[in-house]
Amino acid sequence: REMERYLLDGSTLLAAMAAPFRLRAETHAVLEDRSNLILVSAATFLDAYALEAEDRAAFSSLRGKLQSAATQMGFTAVDTTPAQVDRAATLAAALPWPRRILRAQADMLPATLLTVE
Fold first, then answer.
1. Would you place residue 46 in the very low, low, confident or very high pLDDT band (cuts 50, 70, 90)?
2. Half-sphere exposure at residue 14, Cβ-oriented, CA atoms within 13 angstroms
3. Phi, psi at residue 37, to the nearest 5°?
4. Residue 7 host element (H or E)
5. Is 2 helix (H, G, I), strand (E, B) or coil?
6. CA angle at residue 55 from 64 to 59, to 5 degrees?
7. Contact predicate 75/68, CB 8 Å
8. pTM
9. Residue 24's CB: how many other CB atoms inside 10 A?
10. List of residues 6+ apart from 9 with CB closer than 8 A
């Protein structure tokens, strides 16, 4: 079987760590299957506000924490440098809310997007 690629948003990573009962059974099964490549993105937290200099500073700290948590769980953190996020944001402009940056990242990777919803 070929390795499946999934993009996990930051909120779902937090749920997987702190409250796995919040995850749908299908999502939980994907995360438990070690033959899947689970990519984690902190970009979910960017959907709520504009990409301005002061927001990037707070995002940088949060990104580091999420990347560390992803690694501890055996997942792979996605590059969320300003250049990568700007590229995703440009592609996302044509997508509907919510989670449009995440949707753009999933298309760029490519990977199936997983969220708490």
1. low
2. 11
3. -95, 115
4. strand 5-9
5. coil
6. 10
7. no
8. 0.78
9. 13
10. 40, 41, 43, 44, 99, 102, 113, 114, 115, 116
DSSP string, 14-75: HHHHH-GGGS-HHHHHHHH-TTSEEEEESGGGGTTS---HHHHHHHHHHHHHHHHHHHHTT-
Q: How far apart are CA 114 and CA 5, in angstroms?
A: 10
What six digits make up the tokens of 47?
Answer: 């959907």
Side chain identity at residue 2, one-letter code: E
pLDDT tens, residue by residue, 79-114: 777 788 788 888 888 888 777 888 898 999 999 998
SS3 state at 69: helix
Contact 11, 44 (CB under 8 A): yes
Locate tokens 């995850």: which residue? 23
